[in-house]
């Protein structure tokens, strides 16, 4: 892409991809846990969820979801506040 891999540019990319990274780390932790029943093949739709998280690289984007797992798996992310459960959105609309 012609962008130099400077310390600043790498830090910006890592920051922009934090939710996607945290989501994948959580999935790997689930799969590698002792006595794990998590199988990547049986959870293929998780891959699609992870792709949505790349939109958060744009700081103006928020995701609205009914998926509690998506919220839970990204809770350690600096971008987690931009992933809203639909019920949270309704609550915000009613209070505002």
Report on this model:
The protein is mostly helical and 96 residues long. The protein has one domain. It contains 5 helices and 2 strands; from the N terminus they run H-H-H-E-H-E-H. It has helices at residues 7-16, 18-32, 45-52, 68-73, 86-95; strands at residues 63-65, 83-85. Strands 1-2 form a two-stranded parallel ribbon. Helix 4 (68-73) links the parallel strand 1 and strand 2 (83-85). The protein starts with 6 loop residues before the first helix and ends with a helix.
- The rounded distance between the terminal residues' Cα atoms is 43 Å
Class per helix and strand makeup? mainly alpha
Largest sheet, spatial ordering of strands? 1-2
Overall strand count: 2
Tally of alpha and pi helices: 5
Largest sheet, strands/sense/barrel: 2 strands, parallel
Topology:
Elements (H helix, E strand, L loop, with lengths): L6 H10 L1 H15 L12 H8 L10 E3 L2 H6 L9 E3 H10 L1
Parallel strand pairs: 1-2
């Amino acid at each position: 892409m012609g962008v130099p891999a400077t310390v600043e540019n790498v830090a910006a990319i890592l920051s922009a991809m934090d939710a996607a990274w945290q989501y994948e780390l959580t999935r790997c932790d689930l799969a590698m846990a002792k006595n794990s029943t998590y199988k990547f093949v049986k959870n293929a739709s998780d891959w699609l969820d992870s792709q949505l998280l790349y939109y958060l690289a744009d700081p103006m984007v928020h995701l609205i979801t009914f998926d509690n797992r998506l919220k839970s798996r990204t809770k350690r992310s600096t971008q987690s506040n931009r992933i809203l459960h639909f019920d949270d959105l309704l609550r915000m609309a009613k209070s505002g």
